[in-house]
Amino acid sequence: MKTAPRKTADLSAQIAHAIRDAIVSGELIVDARLPSEAELSEQFQVSRPTVREALKRLAAQSLIRTQRGATGGAFVNRLSFEDAYSQQITTSTLLLSMNAVSFDTACEARYALERACAPLSAQRRTADQLATMRAEIFRQAQPGLTDEAFCASDVTFHRALVDGADNPVLSYQLAGAVEAMQPLMNMITFTARSREEIIAMHTRIADALEARDADIVDTALVDLEHYTQQLAHDVAERKRKPA
Question: Are residues 102 and 47 in the same domain?
Fold first, then answer.
């Protein structure tokens, strides 16, 4: 672990980056104990509060954990995909909102990724995941359900479809697509969409998954993508027309 920090404000960030690189490279393995604050302070030639701040940054990323007591200290954590979901969602949300990604581009990516899960989900989905999807379809049909609640239910439905693939790498990659792209797309299209049509397509997907028919799941997702894109175009067209 080496670093040559130049700016005082960047010291803790640079030290955290150096330790993270050591973890990624395998220099520091899972459950390995990091040097003490005093040792790190000497190694990086910085104050102990600066080291402490660097360790807080790493803990916030779930890369390390701290333990108290005689055998305590900072240890390399075993990072799970579930722990990384929130970071993936945050990053995806920022990328979409700050980089002027077009609706069509986001929609294309989101459904291309989800369709990749369809064959696996048709084979591996569990009864609990099907039950979650059915429960969300029932919820979406309830009178008086707010737009916000409908959007949240929509995300939960598609999250169950993705998790049905039983592939943590795919689930991690799709965390941003479903839980970042989906809400943003919902915000644009909710005023124009028909809940009945969404529910009908969700029902087709759930029925096909129950029958383990990957082709119908794929077709239903294609239809849902086209419907979503058309909604966005309709909304944009209305905004262009004078009141």
Answer: no
168: containing domain? 81-240
How many helices (DSSP H) and strands (DSSP E) are in the chain? 11, 2
For the CA atoms of 219, 225, 226, 229, what is the dihedral angle to 10 degrees? 180
Query: Which CATH number fits the domain that encloses residue 31?
Result: 1.10.10.10
Domain end call among 28, 57, 76: 76
With CA atoms as reference, report the closest residue to 204 among 182, 219, 189. Answer: 219
Q: Are 65 and 77 in contact (CB under 8 A)?
A: yes
* pTM summary value: 0.71
Per-residue pLDDT tens over the stretch 59-113: 888 888 888 877 788 999 887 777 777 777 777 777 777 767 788 888 888 899 8
Q: What residue type is 200 in one-letter code?
A: A
